[in-house]
Design brief:
Largest sheet: 6 strands, mixed
Order of helices and strands: HEHEHEHHHEEEHEHEHEEHHEHHH
Structural class: alpha/beta
Strand order of the largest sheet: 7-6-8-5-9-11
CATH class of one domain: Alpha Beta
Number of strands: 11
Helix content: 40-55%
InterPro entries: DctP_fam (IPR018389), SBP_TakP-like (IPR026289), TRAP_DctP_sf (IPR038404)
GO molecular function, one term: metal ion binding
CATH superfamily of one domain: Bacterial extracellular solute-binding protein, family 7
Protein name: ABC transporter substrate-binding protein
GO cellular component, one term: tripartite ATP-independent periplasmic transporter complex
Radius of gyration: 27 Å
CATH topology of one domain: D-Maltodextrin-Binding Protein, domain 2
Pfam families: DctP (PF03480)
Strand content: 5-15%
Length: about 375
């Protein structure tokens, strides 16, 4: 009996060794077969096209260039992106469809331009009295904003990536001082996004011209007032040559958020490490654009002042009226768009949470020092 047991154990062990050896052989064969495929993927280069909504003279073109250069560097040249500014391949307002239809692999734009596709896009561009540049970044990275962006853009076969934030806009150029919103009655104004609708609700005539058409329209009197973006972005456009007054603050766009819009199929065809390279480059570009813009916005304001531009702040009653009209307008459009409602609810929840810390830390680093010591930071 003992001899039989020993024989059975020996047979089982021998069989196990045979299967183990066979399994190892199969694993090695699988690894050997997979190796060339992985090597081929790593050796493959990708050449993409990016269409933008900017002309080369607008600093956001430089943002697109910065992103493309960053991607090429961190992928060691495996993913190269060629940039086509406004009109070089498609007109500015056709960039969305060009990316969606695969004419180009990606675009760079201000999401508010796609308002006609879905109101939700404006929430990722700038909300009146809403998030600023740092707050947009936190919300997108850590507050659930990116997942909501993926949901909205995904409905159109697109993948969104942060594309820089230039900060708060400077306000509206006017030919005479404006401190009361009622003074806008009868004026023809250039603005875009929800600000255009809100001003229309208040009886103001609004024209949403592309950036390249604003100067001539303003100069020829087709427009009585115009805005485009932040001090830094707007300065090269030369509006100060036509009008020497600016109506502040930039309530209409408190944080100008741009996006890189990627064709989802093209994105998914990339190996995971190149997908991640695009994400990393977008994060880096977002932070670079904030730092660059804040520095250059300050420089541009001093240039405007040196050229005789006067900055006129709206009175409290006007800002309250604008805020009430904004709230009523957003409530109305949220009722017809469940995803937009979810996006704005997320932003408002973030603001409610973040504002406590934001308010508590305020008042300790006012500039310049003499104003701080004089108590002007409490005014």
């Amino acid at each position: 009996m003992k001899k039989l047991v020993k024989l059975l154990i020996s047979c089982v062990m021998f069989t196990a060794l045979i299967f183990t050896a066979a399994g190892c052989g199969q694993d090695k064969k699988a690894e050997t077969a997979a190796a060339p495929a992985a090597a081929a993927q790593e050796a493959k280069t990708y050449e993409w096209k990016m269409a933008t909504t900017w002309s080369t003279g607008i600093p956001w073109h430089d943002t697109a260039v910065h992103f493309a250069e960053t991607v090429e560097k961190i992928t060691n040249g495996q993913l190269k992106i060629k940039i086509f500014p406004d009109g070089a391949l498609v007109p500015a307002f056709e960039v969305f469809d060009a990316v969606r239809n695969g004419v180009v692999e990606m675009g760079h734009d201000w999401p508010g331009y796609w308002k006609g596709k879905d109101e939700g896009f404006v929430a990722f561009a700038s909300v009146p009295f809403g998030l600023n540049n740092i707050e947009y970044s936190i919300w997108l990275m850590e507050g659930g904003g990116q997942a909501l962006a993926d949901e909205l853009y995904g409905n159109f076969g697109l993948k969104p990536l942060m594309g820089g934030n230039s900060g708060q806009e400077m306000g509206f150029f006017t030919k005479s001082p404006v401190t009361d919103v009622k003074q806008l009655a009868g004026m023809k104004i250039r603005t875009v996004g929800w600000a255009a609708d809100i001003l229309k609700e208040m009886g103001v005539s609004v024209t949403p011209l592309p950036g390249g058409e604003i100067y001539l329209a303003f100069e020829r009197g087709v427009l009585d007032s115009a805005e485009f973006s932040t001090p830094f972005i707007t300065y090269p456009m030369g509006f100060q040559e036509i009008a020497k007054n600016v109506m502040l603050p930039g309530w209409h766009q408190t944080g100008v958020q741009n996006m890189f819009t990627v064709n989802k199929k093209s994105y998914e065809e990339l190996p995971p490490y190149l997908q991640q390279a695009l994400v990393i480059a977008s994060y880096e570009t977002q932070m670079w654009d904030i730092a660059r813009s804040e520095k250059k916005n300050a420089e541009a304001i001093l240039k405007y002042q040196a050229e005789g531009v006067k900055f006129n702040k709206l009175d409290a009653a006007s800002l309250n009226e604008l805020r009430k009209t904004t709230d009523a307008y957003l409530t109305k459009i949220r009722a017809t768009n469940p995803l937009l409602d979810k996006i704005l609810a997320s932003q408002n929840s973030f603001i409610a949470e973040y504002s406590v810390w934001k308010d508590l830390r305020g008042g300790v680093a006012a500039f310049p020092k003499d104003d701080y010591l004089a108590g002007k930071h409490y005014e």
